[in-house]
Amino acid sequence: MIIAIDGPAASGKGTLARRLAEHFELRHLDTGLTYRAVAAALLAKGLPLGDESVAIEIAQHLELAQMDKSVLSAHEIGEAASRIAVLGGLREELVNLQRKFAETPPGAVLDGRDIGTVVCPNATVKLFVTASPEARARRRTDEMISKGNEANYASVLEDLKRRDERDSQRTVAPLKQADDAVLLDTTEMDIEAAFQAAVDIVSKAA
Ligand code: CDP
Ligand code: CDP
């Protein structure tokens, strides 16, 4: 069983993916972390984000179990991740890694931007999770403040919109709902309501 979850930044896809994995006893991969890990390594080495051959080399040595979400969640890393995510050769490398993870029994929940369209086109069930930009910016701001970071709602909203635009407009594997994905708009839902809705969708499809 493979559950594919895609959606824009701070739509709640990561939280849903983690909880669905627990509920259905599957493994979970936040594919955004793979792009973030490569971006963070380039930033740490002071290398340009457009250096695709180095990015590919970093991707080839990536250890999924070593990716630390708390370190990689920094705002600048998310921005850098979306810049390197336009590189086709790098994506191919990361997609291979993600597919291997997905296809290892008993199956998995993967969340990202292109899981239903590119990584796992034959997934058992596909969810496209979304919410208004304002709701997403509010969630991301609250999340940053709760972790003790500074956050300004207006600039978080601007950044989210810019990243969504870049992710939706790129030519390789843009953020887009797969034809056979179920749309889940969580603008008016808290995380518990969104989780219940997602469990219903998956249970019907599986
Ligand atoms: O993975 P993604 O960036 O799509 O989002 P997330 O990390 O799962 O969620 C971003 C933040 O929004 C987290 O703090 C969630 O608890 C919160 N959230 C929420 O308040 N209501 C929802 N329906 C979904 C997420
Ligand atoms: O948590 P949030 O939704 O803010 O971001 P993320 O899922 O960690 O992804 C960071 C960036 O990586 C995104 O803005 C995309 O540009 C890129 N990404 C991608 O291109 N394809 C994926 N499957 C996952 C992430």
UniProtKB/TrEMBL annotation:
One of its GO terms (cellular component) is cytoplasm. One of its GO terms (molecular function) is ATP binding. ATP binds at residues 7-15. This is Cytidylate kinase. It comes from Roseibium alexandrii (strain DSM 17067 / NCIMB 14079 / DFL-11) (Labrenzia alexandrii). It comes from the Bacteria. The gene is cmk. InterPro entries: Cytidylate_kin, Cytidylate_kinase_dom, P-loop_NTPase. The keyword ATP-binding applies. Transmembrane segments: none annotated. Pfam families: Cytidylate_kin. GO terms for biological process: pyrimidine nucleotide metabolic process. Residues 3-202 form the Cytidylate kinase domain. Coiled coil: none annotated. It catalyses: dCMP + ATP = dCDP + ADP; CMP + ATP = CDP + ADP.
